[in-house]
Design a protein that fits this description.
- The structure is a single chain.
- With 193 residues, this protein is an all-alpha fold.
- 69% of the residues lie in helices and 0% in strands.
- It contains seven helices and no strands.
- It comes from Parnassius apollo.
């Protein structure tokens, strides 16, 4: 039987251990960090593989940005508010002076409808923009997309809107809007699954 001969010590390895340079030691033992892959395999699950162009990635990044989401919610809220204002003004005609003649002209009715529509549209637009912007900022800061984002955003939005009526109204608005946002988010996630 032959006697065991200890292999020679690599001088680079001795240099690493003397300097306590464990990062360089790991790189030495593992090898280089460059991995060249000629054939990238993308699993096909549903349909053909489509690799996005830089323009498509740029448009997608713009659409998913917080300012775009906030502006879109503002526009949609304005339209929804105008529709709600039209509906409510048609149900409750505003008769300001009970002693005045009871017949209103079409111009007066249309003027009241316009005022109600603009008021609702403005409020819904502000509500949509603030909620969407705050939720997007919270989601970006947390790095998660879950039910807590809507709850926090609802609390902040309700608090900001309620502060016009004072501190107590702000607290009630924050609690109410946070609860409403949580219930709506829960309902939407239950419907989706």
């Amino acid at each position: 039987m032959t006697e065991y001969v200890k292999p020679p010590v690599d001088p680079d390895l001795v240099k690493f251990t003397e300097k306590n340079d464990y990062d360089a030691l790991a790189k030495y033992l593992v090898g280089n960090n460059y991995r060249y892959r000629e054939n990238i395999i993308i699993p096909r699950i549903l349909g053909p593989i489509v690799i996005k162009t830089n323009e498509e990635k740029m448009i997608e990044a713009t659409v998913e940005s917080c300012p775009f989401k906030s502006i879109t919610s503002c526009i949609i809220g304005y339209g929804l508010g105008a529709a709600v204002g039209l509906f409510t003004s048609s149900l409750m005609p505003n008769v300001t002076d009970p002693t005045a003649q009871q017949t209103q002209t079409a111009r007066e009715i249309l003027r009241e409808m316009k005022g109600a529509m603009l008021s609702y549209a403005k409020n819904f637009a502000i509500l949509g923009a603030v909620f969407s912007g705050v939720e997007c900022c919270i989601e970006s800061a947390r790095g998660k997309s879950d039910w807590k984002n809507g709850t926090y955003a609802g609390g902040v939005t309700g608090g900001l809107i309620g502060l016009r009526g004072g501190l107590k109204a702000g607290l009630f608005g924050a609690a109410g809007f946070a609860a409403f946002s949580t219930v709506i988010d829960y309902y939407m996630h239950q419907r989706g699954s």
